[in-house]
């Protein structure tokens, strides 16, 4: 079963920085954004050198769901974690989440999920990894791998805001409302009854570069850098062979260490975490 530890080890041992050139040469991407999406799939499937037919077969074995940009998540590992990929071209740009608030966990009963996602496995809850790639027009500059429960509060925090706004909207007199997964939808706003209004949430969250700047691990001068952060209890849940492989990895500019981060639900508390970093100068 594929997992994040295996993916990180693969990147460290075989970093591909010029992703657009790599995937354009294989007729799999026309832009650096498409190249990044393909790269993320390949690091989890370990499918870089496969033919297209064999690559698709590997995807079928490794992934239970491959989604789209409009509905999270982008990927679900079979019997494993959910994955959401975000691309930025400014190293500290906030992440646009659109109508989906940030998630500490992914729940199968979420109205934002497609039916295909809900039915891809027999599941109720999954850990979610946010992968943030900073790119220029051709290369990856950094990749952050951060579990949602390291920087997102519990869903009740966001749901409270969403429900309060939706409830307030429904109190507007003399308008017709319809059921929606958005904040609200108002029908027949005008006297002729020909105008509708969709009310959508547009969620943003700060970039991990900013959120975890207090860890002092970002090297702005590196040609390429990988940073991976997870709770210690999550790390301990992985197979022993994968944990040992990362802990014993010996490569220049590679680091595996214990650290502490602020609890997203109560910053007065600190959480025990594992931080993995690797850079190419």
Question: Could you describe the 3D structure shown?
Answer:
- The protein has one domain (4-153, 203-280).
- The chain is globular and about 70 Å long.
- It starts with a helix and ends with a strand.
- The chain has 281 residues and is an alpha+beta fold.
- The model has no long low-confidence stretch (mean pLDDT 92).
- The protein is built from nine helices and 14 strands.
Fold topology:
Layout: H1 4-13, H2 19-24, H3 32-45, H4 52-62, E1 63-68, E2 71-77, E3 82-88, E4 95-98, E5 105-107, H5 115-118, E6 125-135, E7 140-147, H6 155-169, E8 176-177, E9 184-187, E10 197-199, E11 203-205, H7 208-211, E12 224-231, H8 232-236, H9 240-247, E13 254-263, E14 266-280
Parallel strand pairs: 3-6, 7-12
Antiparallel strand pairs: 1-2, 2-3, 4-11, 5-6, 6-7, 8-9, 9-10, 12-14, 13-14
Helix pairs in contact: 1-9
List keywords for this structure.
single chain, alpha+beta, 3-stranded antiparallel β-sheet, 27% helix, 281 residues, 9 helices
Task: Tell me, briefly, the overall form.
Answer: globular
What is the helical fraction, as a range of percent? 25-40%
Structural class: alpha+beta
Average predicted confidence as pLDDT: 92
Written as H for each helix and E for each strand, in order along the chain, the element string is HHHHEEEEEHEEHEEEEHEHHEE
Number of domains: 1
Strand content bin: 25-35%
- SS element count, helices: 9
Low-confidence stretches: none
* Head-to-tail CA distance between termini: 32 Å
Please give the radius of gyration in angstroms.
Answer: 20 Å
In this structure, how is the largest beta sheet organized?
Answer: 9 strands, mixed
């Amino acid at each position: 079963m594929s997992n994040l530890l295996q993916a990180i080890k693969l990147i460290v041992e075989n970093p591909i920085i010029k992703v657009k050139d790599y995937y354009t040469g294989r007729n799999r991407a026309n832009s650096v954004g498409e190249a990044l999406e393909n790269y993320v799939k390949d690091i989890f499937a370990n499918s870089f050198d496969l033919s297209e037919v064999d690559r698709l077969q590997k995807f079928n074995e490794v992934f239970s769901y491959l989604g789209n940009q409009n509905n999270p998540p982008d990927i679900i590992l079979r019997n494993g974690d959910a994955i959401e990929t975000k691309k930025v071209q400014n190293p500290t740009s906030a992440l646009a989440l659109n109508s989906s608030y940030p998630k500490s966990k992914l729940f199968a009963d979420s109205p934002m999920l497609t039916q295909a996602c809900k039915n891809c496995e027999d599941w109720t809850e999954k850990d979610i990894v946010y992968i943030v790639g900073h790119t220029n027009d051709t290369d990856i500059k950094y990749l952050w791998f951060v579990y949602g429960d390291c920087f997102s509060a519990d869903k009740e925090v966001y749901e409270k805001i969403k429900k309060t706004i939706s409830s307030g909207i429904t109190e507007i007199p003399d308008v017709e409302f319809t059921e929606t997964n958005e904040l609200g939808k108002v029908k027949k706003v005008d006297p002729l009854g020909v105008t509708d209004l969709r009310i959508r949430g547009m969620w943003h969250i700060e970039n991990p570069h900013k959120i975890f700047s207090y860890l002092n691990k970002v090297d702005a001068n590196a040609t390429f850098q990988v940073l991976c952060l997870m709770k210690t209890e999550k790390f301990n849940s992985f197979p022993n062979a994968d944990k040992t492989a990362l802990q014993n990895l010996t490569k220049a500019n590679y680091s595996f260490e214990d650290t502490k981060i602020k609890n997203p639900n109560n910053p007065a508390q600190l959480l025990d975490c594992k931080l993995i970093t690797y850079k190419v100068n």
